[in-house]
Amino acid sequence: MKKLEGAFPVLVTPMNEDETVNYEGFAQNIEKFIEEGVAGLCINGSTGEFVSLTKEERFKLAETGVKQVAGRVPLIIGTAAETTKDAIEYTQQAEKAGADAALLINSYYAHPKEDEIYEHFKAVAESVSIPVMIYNNPFTSGVDISTETILKVGRDVDNITHIKESSGDIRKARDIARQGKGDLKVFCGSEDLAIESLLVGATGWISVSGNIAPRLVTDLYNSVQEGDLDKAWELYDRLLPLCEFLEGSGKYVQISKRAMELKGWAGGPCRKPRLPLSAEEDARLKELMDSLETVSQ
């Protein structure tokens, strides 16, 4: 099993102007991320518009991703679905394709109760042998999973090994990291709490801003691990305005895809109902990217 730690960009799904998936551009982006020295990659997540993709597209993206990565870095594949049955199918397909781990959020429309979340995570994880990273994001799923449920399912299910913690409550990241030691490792899922999460025990970061500045987020993570907090904070101070723009705009997918285009990578439009950035938002993104150029060189 590959070790899951470090800053993992969570990739966009490039599209053509007719909103079909650009699989060639997807593979080319993966190659560029690996050349940038990232610790690992995550695909078919929220940033990848998984809820807007068909089953066939998600399967093909998983297969394309595994083939392109070719074992060079760990690859986490998002396998979320509204029903447990469908989540099992996606997770089993990811395992068959060759994923190193699956990323699994709870049902995002049903607003399930704690026991339902526990049983969902347990059933999906027990259907495969690869590691499963569960995911707490009340902003997208409408449910903030309790620390107790997270710790319990981590203790009870051997291959639930990590959690992506995106509640924005640093106390929750701290408590899971400390109380779940030996059972569950924490990945930061909040762009504006990256260093804070690492300092309270997180061992990784699923990073949206890693699409835009992959080398910078990698350097930031490494600086924390090396104990060079002055350098880490200097990098984060420069990155934080972009992180806050991603978190606060409600348009993190559009921002990420537009940024890819501005870098000369594959981006393209989002699937509707997501609309492009406004002129003001586009100008702000360009300003933020210009400010990062000297950092990422």
From TrEMBL:
<keyword id="KW-0456">Lyase</keyword>
<keyword id="KW-0220">Diaminopimelate biosynthesis</keyword>
<feature type="site" description="Part of a proton relay during catalysis">
    <location>
        <position position="46"/>
    </location>
</feature>
<dbReference type="InterPro" id="IPR013785">
    <property type="entry name" value="Aldolase_TIM"/>
</dbReference>
<keyword id="KW-0963">Cytoplasm</keyword>
<keyword id="KW-0704">Schiff base</keyword>
<feature type="active site" description="Schiff-base intermediate with substrate">
    <location>
        <position position="164"/>
    </location>
</feature>
<keyword id="KW-0457">Lysine biosynthesis</keyword>
<feature type="site" description="Part of a proton relay during catalysis">
    <location>
        <position position="109"/>
    </location>
</feature>
<feature type="active site" description="Proton donor/acceptor">
    <location>
        <position position="135"/>
    </location>
</feature>
<dbReference type="Pfam" id="PF00701">
    <property type="entry name" value="DHDPS"/>
</dbReference>
<keyword id="KW-0028">Amino-acid biosynthesis</keyword>
<dbReference type="GO" id="GO:0008840">
    <property type="term" value="F:4-hydroxy-tetrahydrodipicolinate synthase activity"/>
</dbReference>
<comment type="function">
    <text>Catalyzes the condensation of (S)-aspartate-beta-semialdehyde [(S)-ASA] and pyruvate to 4-hydroxy-tetrahydrodipicolinate (HTPA).</text>
</comment>
<dbReference type="InterPro" id="IPR002220">
    <property type="entry name" value="DapA-like"/>
</dbReference>
<comment type="similarity">
    <text>Belongs to the DapA family.</text>
</comment>
<feature type="binding site">
    <location>
        <position position="206"/>
    </location>
    <ligand>
        <name>pyruvate</name>
    </ligand>
</feature>
<protein>
    <recommendedName>
        <fullName>4-hydroxy-tetrahydrodipicolinate synthase</fullName>
        <ecNumber>4.3.3.7</ecNumber>
    </recommendedName>
</protein>
<dbReference type="InterPro" id="IPR005263">
    <property type="entry name" value="DapA"/>
</dbReference>
<comment type="subunit">
    <text>Homotetramer; dimer of dimers.</text>
</comment>
<feature type="binding site">
    <location>
        <position position="47"/>
    </location>
    <ligand>
        <name>pyruvate</name>
    </ligand>
</feature>
<comment type="pathway">
    <text>Amino-acid biosynthesis; L-lysine biosynthesis via DAP pathway; (S)-tetrahydrodipicolinate from L-aspartate: step 3/4.</text>
</comment>
